[in-house]
Amino acid sequence: MKKFNILTLGCQMNERDSETLAGMLTEMGYEQIDDRNQADIAIINTCSVRDHADRRFFGMLGQLKKIKEKNPGFIVCVCGCMMQQQHIIDQIKEKYPWVDIIFGTHNIHRFPRLLGNVISEKEKQIEIWEDGGEIVEGLPSKRLYKHKAFVNIMFGCNNFCTYCIVPYTRGRERSRRPEDILAEIKRLVDDGVKEITLLGQNVNSYKGEGGVDFADLLRMINEVDGIERIRFMTSHPKDLSDRLIDVYRDCDKVCSFFHLPVQSGNDNILKRMNRRYTADDYMELVRKLREARPDISLTTDIIVGFPGETEEEFEDTLKLVEAVNFDSAFTFMYSKRKGTPAAEYDDQIPEEIKHDRFDRLVETVNRCAADRNARFVGQITPVLVEGVSKSDEGCVTGRNPQNKIVNFPGDASLTGTIVNVKISEAGTFSLVGKMV
Ligand code: 5AD
Ligand code: SF4
Question: Which residues form the signal peptide (predicted)?
Fold first, then answer.
């Protein structure tokens, strides 16, 4: 049996796309393996959101070259967001001409055809589609997890935040039809899935056929029998309506967990980022969400060192983090992305200042996270068990509705079940307890 290996960089959208690639290859009779040295086909699904991911990609290509030198029949495929940028394609053609297949984010369904062409014609295949195609339904998928699944509800982004490459690599917003989404979720339930995460760059601006918006869609999904937990990401504060918050409050299967990227706590920076809300608007949303769901866990994304950010403006971000008291946050140093407006701003921040701000932000975020986790001590919380813990022998690990990692004594037979756990200890990143 021929074997393949996929390396996925970046976000959950990419993870979901890799599941589709794995599904197509599995249908073609290939077997997925972890060791790329033993593979016949290697795929790198790339991310271009920050330069760290770019660098990892080029480092990995170097490794694949060594495998190809030993095994000339080894097929190397690269895809994902980086491939939607012409300067990257040019660089690959020039410096890595031995790459066999290059495709982008809009034509994943074409992969079996491109692979067939490489095998039969022994000729490299480069196929990048511009934005604007139809959503292709019905592709196979080989899921990463048994009991939880990602479901795309929309693709692309229309927001053009000035730092962000996504609108250029993923194109304009397109929403899937509600009936296609519901049919996929029903199939997942039949297959034993208990938790779904609805994915989109900006789920709050979902616009399905028949005028169905995200609030309507959540209600419809909440009615599906057999689904126990519903999550979604990512939400944009400017599109989070009162109506959606009402629906969120009322849908019992939707978890008390909300990821709401704030990016900065300073109005001038938010304006220059083209975020279209103020720090006060954000605080008001936090108030409404906590009113709707007092047990909610709130997480966010934050960028430090955006061009022109002063010390005082950065301190506004620290103040906002303290004021919200986030459950956790993904923190990033601003990274220049070719083709975005902010990359051209002439007031770029020196790296050492970015590092200093980043460290101070992480310290503040961790303090909030530890404080928020402490509220669970003494409480009983339902945990969907993901499997045995890799670090603690005799323990299993899972997540509660607030998306907290919970570790407790148990064995593999608990995997995929939801059990009640009484929390005895809380750290910065996880909780510890005992099944009750
Ligand atoms: N530099 C740093 N962080 C970025 N993000 C997006 N673009 C950049 C960039 N150029 C962050 C944002 C976004 C998250 C997915 O990545 O915080 O919400
Ligand atoms: Fe990027 Fe902004 Fe769109 Fe998010 S909303 S994908 S940060 S442009």
Answer: none
